[in-house]
Design a protein that fits this description.
This protein is of the alpha/beta class. It has helices spanning 26-33, 74-88; strands at residues 17-23, 37-43, 50-58, 61-69, 92-96. The longest helix is centred in the last third of the chain and has 15 residues, at 74-88.
Length: 102
């Protein structure tokens, strides 16, 4: 990790964390995708699923993020998450869901 003058990581350096983010809807996927830099497609060998893998920089460090939109359903999402976490050696996984107020 390369630190800048504030102690945070410089954008563009090698990420030192990895996360998997799953979404069910295109609007959720697009919202997460808008925060990623250096995005590239990567195929998960076990399933053939195409992920978009990018970088998210924050003052606390840089994250390698694997983003995928999955079909609704707990079982399918769980299987996809487990395989992606294993492949990327991710330390966390998130399922992003947007809700409408009211």
């Amino acid at each position: 990790m390369t630190a800048d003058a504030t102690g945070g990581e410089k954008p563009g350096s090698t990420p030192d964390h990895a996360a998997v983010i799953l979404t069910a809807l295109p609007v959720e996927y697009d919202a997460v995708h808008s925060y990623l830099a250096d995005v590239k497609e990567e195929e998960l060998p076990a399933t053939g699923t195409i992920y978009e893998v990018g970088r998210f920089d924050s003052p606390l460090g840089s994250w390698k993020i694997a983003l995928v939109q999955v079909d609704p359903g707990n079982y399918e999402a769980a299987v996809e998450a487990e395989r992606a976490i294993s492949h990327l050696q991710a330390s966390v996984a998130f399922f992003v869901k947007m809700i409408r107020p009211g």
